[in-house]
Amino acid sequence: MKLMKIGIDKIGFATSDLYLDMVDLANARHEDPNKYLIGIGQSKMAVIRPTQDVVTMAAAAAKKIICQEDKEKISYVIFATESGVDNSKSAAIYLADLLGLKLNIRTIEVKQACYGATAALQLAKGYVALNPESKVLVIGADNARYGVKTPGEPTQGGGAIAMIIGSDPKILELENETSAYAKNIMDFWRPLGHSKALVDGKYSSGVYLDFLKNVWDEQLKRTNYQLQDYGALLFHLPYTKMGLKGLRQILQDATAEDSTRLIREFEYARQFNCEVGNLYTGSLYLSFLSLLVNSTSIKSGDRIGFFSYGSGAQAEFFTGILQPDYQKGLAGVDYWAILNKRQSVSVIEYEDLFERHVFDIENIELDYQADKSAFLLAGIHNYKRKYLSR
Less CB within 10 Å around the terminal CB: N or C of the chain? Predict the structure, then answer.
């Protein structure tokens, strides 16, 4: 009996059309630019307009990959975010409406810091196993905000990843063995009523590496896979230097051949993240997309390892096998062209846009004429968000 393959059939990405150059930010904050360019591994940071939020960015990401056949088969939308727009109503139901999905579907929102999209992915896998003719739309979308002139400022960013999960996937077959680890700690949190996150940065970095060691060691015991069995190892990237620290930890006793290969693939896998900054729930999967687009050496049959981490804290390590038609799952989108068309903003413009972020407002009309995006937040009336699509 042939076992059913379940995994990522398509993947898409969207972010703001604006960015801030990290050299400009460093100069404005009287820092050495290399502190940002090398020390945290970031070159640009997405700047989110007030007329954009996780719903509009998710819709833009999904639109890049969804065809009519997908619309007919999608029966579940799982939206992972820690930048939700309502404490009761899921972002997924706004998204389904914007995309014109059928009405006889399920729509939910999930949350566990930056781990949320992995939770959604695993939920989707289980659903498809029971409903093999159905597809699930999984979203990881966030607006990473720490505040102007805060220690976390250079690790901000934003955007959305959309993935279609189904049987016989074009991109990646998910393997069954995973390892997870959870512990109640306070390394990062955003209390109710706060639009900006609170974080103990140094502590959180240490927890990230501790959790990585735990799930990596557990995965080795469960699978007996060794470094030579991986074509690439991917990491949650709150900033890209953090993933490099994680990889170096794993490679401490590696052969020269394994180190060379896995570091090379990591460099491909962090290129998009360097351009955008932190996506929270979508960061790991943006790195996966970056690998698929930029690597010249990965190939069908390669095993890809994924380390997912969400502060608070939850971690999971899982694996998947790259499929023969993985390039078809990218839907022919030229992401470098999209990133290169973005407009640079000054530090003053970034600070103004940051402070005009819409949060906990009863009534507001937004001027969206300058925003040429396909999906927009036009305003809020009696706390009801009004979205537009073009």
Answer: N
